[in-house]
Amino acid sequence: MSRKAPPAADDLGPPGDDDGPPLHAAVAERLVKLRMFKGWRPVEAARQLGVSKQLWNHWEQGQGRPGVDHGMELADLCGATLDYLYTGRKAGISAELRDFLLAQERDLSRGNPTAA
Hints:
Shape: globular
CATH architecture: Orthogonal Bundle
CATH topology: 434 Repressor (Amino-terminal Domain)
Structural class: mainly alpha
Number of domains: 1
Number of strands: 0
Number of helices: 6
Strand content: under 5%
């Protein structure tokens, strides 16, 4: 019986592994929101976390997700929480981030395509 190797700490695998595409897609969406909140381009976000821009893009495209160490670092930099990054729960995020996310939701509900 073959055993599947555990995922690397920095990349929890492609969609279809344990959690499937919806989770990776949702995490990817929140990564984009956090990056936009900070005003970073993808290369700047990668630099802040000390990862390659290819790995950051991999995460933003939902082809994997940051491991806990990178997730914690990103959460600290953005006033977010791991809970927000991985589940979308907003309890404990900074007031500034909450306001940014609410403004984005309002813009999207008004049909502003630049909010996403």
